[in-house]
Design a protein that fits this description.
By secondary structure, the chain is an alpha+beta fold. It has a single domain, classed as Alpha-Beta Plaits. It is 37% helix and 22% strand. The protein has five helices and six strands. The longest helix has 21 residues. It is globular.
Length: 189
């Protein structure tokens, strides 16, 4: 964004960054050894719903995308809409590398079809600790952060999240701005 954009009030949305997703399988070894977390075999791509005018075209393209992803991998893919109206493409595959590859494929295909700005995050569930952990990947910033819901309403275990950050920041691109570590309470994962 240049000075002219600032002066005239134009601001474009950042494009999605998807490549850093591939750091997750290598970091999973450290998660297992140091923290006892193992992939739970489920992840999701979360994106903003489209306006009514784009909906029919996008709905057809989204179904084509899901068909393509299902053909390209052994993953099972389903759709869900959360209570805030966001779309979730939920991917189930017990192999973490295949799971990451399928999530990357979905994100890439959505971006290629003009929906890059709608991509919000990808979430990967891990289990084996005191509480389940979601590693969330923010597409706009190209970084991960841990989310550890306590299961008690809108509560999260901040101490556990910071401990995970400290143990994995050498292996994963971690979002440095803690105010951007949004939670996915009620995630259908």
């Amino acid at each position: 964004m240049g000075l002219r954009d600032v002066l005239f009030g134009r601001k474009g949305l950042k494009k999605a960054q998807r490549e850093a997703l591939f750091a997750l399988p290598a970091a999973a070894v450290t998660m297992d050894v140091e923290v006892g977390l193992k992939p739970a075999g489920v992840a999701a791509v979360i994106f903003k719903p489209l306006s009514a005018g784009e909906f029919v075209r996008a709905e057809n393209e989204l179904q084509e995308l899901l068909d393509l992803a299902a053909r390209e991998s052994s993953a099972k893919i389903e759709r869900s809409t959360d209570s805030y109206g966001y779309e979730w493409l939920i991917v189930r595959d017990n192999d973490l590398e295949d799971l990451v590859t399928t999530v990357h494929l979905i994100g890439s295909e959505l971006a290629a079809r003009g929906f890059s700005e709608q991509l919000l995050a990808a979430a990967f569930r891990f289990s084996g600790g005191k509480l389940p952990v979601l590693w969330i990947y923010g597409y706009k910033r190209g970084a991960f952060w841990p989310f550890v819901p306590t299961g008690e309403g809108q509560e999260r275990d901040n101490a556990e999240e910071l401990e995970l950050k400290a143990k994995l920041e050498k292996e994963l691109p971690i979002e440095p701005d803690l105010t951007r570590w949004f939670g996915l309470f009620g995630a259908p994962l």
